[in-house]
């Protein structure tokens, strides 16, 4: 089955450029001009969503938050808003990656392929990958469930994005071990660390704590070791 990518941008020229680039790589492209259309067109057959931020009716942040209520599909923000604060807000909304305009063809395709690869590996969208070799991890009321790719906190099911799952899995498999932001990034994203990724890790840790901690401001599971990184208690 052909990989399907939903592209949302209110600029028709940008959508055309993305369609040409992505169809040239063998992907099927579905186009939307705003967030409302994204929600109308999205279904389980979509493998990746590329979202602009500044769109009418419903912007990219709002659209991403809405999608995250029901889906862990990879979301790439592609936008002219390239400040670190914009990236932080994007990741806080549930995005998996962020690419600022103007972008190069090679960088776009690399990001798209990396997101799809992780989604296929951890969700089994295109490959039959057995999770039987991975046993669920349970510690102090928190269970990481590999077959379902989610977590359970005191009996309550918690949905996680792929990146959140990867980070939590890395930490829970190695309790008490301190992981630097660089180590966590390379394990969770399965790609080389880049200089500004610390902020990315920080935002994903924050989102993860909101989901699994009773009091995210005073975490019990994921501790910050100042100047060194993070560890699972």
Please give a structural write-up.
With 233 residues, this protein is an alpha/beta fold. It is 40% helix and 19% strand. The protein contains 8 helices and 11 strands. It has helices at 12-24, 35-41, 60-67, 84-92, 105-123, 162-173, 181-189, 197-212; strands spanning 4-8, 28-32, 48-51, 75-79, 97-100, 137-139, 142-145, 150-153, 156-158, 222-225, 229-232. It has a 5-stranded parallel beta sheet, with helices on both faces. It has a 4-stranded antiparallel beta sheet with strand order 6-7-8-9, covered by helices on one side. A hairpin with a 3-residue loop joins strand 10 (222-225) and strand 11. The longest helix is centred in the middle third of the chain and has 19 residues, at 105-123. The chain is globular and about 50 Å long. The termini are far apart. The model is unreliable at 124-133 (pLDDT under 50).
